[in-house]
Design brief:
Elements: E1 11-16, E2 19-29, E3 32-37, E4 46-48, E5 52-56, E6 67-68, E7 71-72, H1 75-78
Antiparallel strand pairs: 1-2, 1-5, 2-3, 3-4, 6-7
Length: 84
């Protein structure tokens, strides 16, 4: 796989020693991907470009506050009506 397309914060799937591990990318240095495994029991914390078999890009920004992408939500959508 081409590690040039992988960036910090992305999710990778690696195959090491007959096992498959998912992790969040922390750093890429010298064609080696350093990651934090999703399962803390995984013993590996880095993989070569050859061992990376899947990649999911982190997309979009944070959605904080009442406005998303500059568009305010209508009050009817934000209101929670509970029948008691």
């Amino acid at each position: 796989m081409r590690v040039e397309t992988v960036t910090v914060g992305d999710i990778v799937k690696v195959a090491i020693g007959g096992r498959t591990i998912y992790g969040e990318v922390l750093e890429i240095r010298d064609r080696v991907v350093y990651f934090r495994p999703i399962s803390p029991a995984a013993g590996w914390r880095h993989a070569s470009a050859h061992q990376v078999i899947g990649h999911w890009r982190k997309a979009g920004g944070s959605r904080s506050g009442g406005e998303q992408d500059g568009v305010a939500q209508p009050p009817q959508q934000l209101a929670l009506h509970v029948n008691s």
